[in-house]
Amino acid sequence: MLKKYLPLAAVSLLFGCAQPTDRAQQYVDDEFTSILNKSAVVESSKPRDFTEFHRQAEQVVINSPSMAKIYQPLYDSLNEWVLQSGEPTELASFGIQAAQLGGGDKQGNVLFTGYFSPVMELRHQANEIFKYPVYAKPECESDCPTRAQIYDGALEGLGLELGYAANMIDPFLMEVQGSGFVHFEDDDTLEYFAYGGKNNKAYVSIGRVLIERDLVPREKMSMKAIKEWVLNNDEATVRELLEQNPSFVFFEPRADAPVTGSAGIPLLAMASVAGDRSIFPMGTPILAEVPLLNPDGSWSGAHQLRLLIVLDTGGAVKQNHLDLYHGMGPRAGTEAGHYKHFGRVWKLGLEGSATQAPWALPPEKLQ
């Protein structure tokens, strides 16, 4: 999948003299000593919305027999808990175990960013406006060209062009998302561009570059702010900025299809999340106090308790950071772009099953 420049602006808010709350931070737990911490009882009084969990779990079971073998007993127990109770303190009565994430501040505040499926306008053939190519993956491994080399024409003449965009930033933002829908304006067709690989170069956040150059204030950093800056600058300036990120993502066109994450499962908005797969194997369900935002991107003052399933991952999504899928299109993009807030999170498991002891981590992750 691909992601993200948003988290760094938010992580820095964790450190300072006072305990900040403007990004929905809470301070209701004692200090944690581990990434995952065994929770005998889960206590949360937040309003609940578990309506999409059954549908998202069903997609896992239908599309992945191997994942279903591991997680279906846990999904079934969670669905039974939702139907009979939905009260967090009663999870253990259904055999469900929980481990709370310690948070980047070791006080339970886990960073939530957002991602979405963009719809990008392309043409099959280039013209004077649609002239920026989107590529399939070349035959390369460690010797793939950098972004600057690709912009210089390293892939020209190889027949890898999937279409042509009207600007440089739309393909770049789709790279950040890792996949998305494409509307070909020359024949009015819709395709899904799945993640097709990358050039295996280091990812650099252009959001961070803009902040460090004092071009966008840290507190105003968002996907929308990046695109506005790009549209207000000339092509050479934009290209120089984008080339600060040598990583390049390639795509694989498919027929109009459901949006899938790296686990290959169709994603439902506000029901699936990307996470660090060394902590959350694909298919892992989590209980999360998700921050609710105002239209302007500020925190509304409330959280909502949701059941989510980890079905995606990304290079910037590490440890106490989750990336919540918001859906498809411009509105989802705006909402996802605002998302850099905090909530409490519990990884779930089922006693006596393959998912038991969700607090367990490989030895190298216990540091």
UniProtKB/TrEMBL annotation:
The answer to whether the entry has keyword Lyase is yes
Query: What biological-process terms (Gene Ontology) are attached?
Result: cell wall organization; peptidoglycan catabolic process; peptidoglycan turnover
Query: In the UniProt record, does the keyword Cell wall biogenesis/degradation occur?
Result: yes
UniProt-recorded Gene Ontology molecular function terms: hydrolase activity, hydrolyzing O-glycosyl compounds; peptidoglycan lytic transglycosylase activity
Choose one Gene Ontology CC annotation of this protein and give it: outer membrane
Lytic transglycosylase MltA domain segment(s): 119-252
Q: State the UniProt keywords alphabetically.
A: Cell wall biogenesis/degradation, Lyase
Reaction(s) catalysed by this chain's protein: Exolytic cleavage of the (1->4)-beta-glycosidic linkage between N-acetylmuramic acid (MurNAc) and N-acetylglucosamine (GlcNAc) residues in peptidoglycan, from either the reducing or the non-reducing ends of the peptidoglycan chains, with concomitant formation of a 1,6-anhydrobond in the MurNAc residue
The record's listing under SMART domains reads: MltA (SM00925)
Q: Which Pfam families match?
A: 3D, MltA
- EC annotation from Swiss-Prot or TrEMBL: 4.2.2.n1
Q: Which PANTHER family match?
A: MEMBRANE-BOUND LYTIC MUREIN TRANSGLYCOSYLASE A
Q: Mind telling me what this protein is named?
A: peptidoglycan lytic exotransglycosylase
Organism, as annotated: Vibrio galatheae
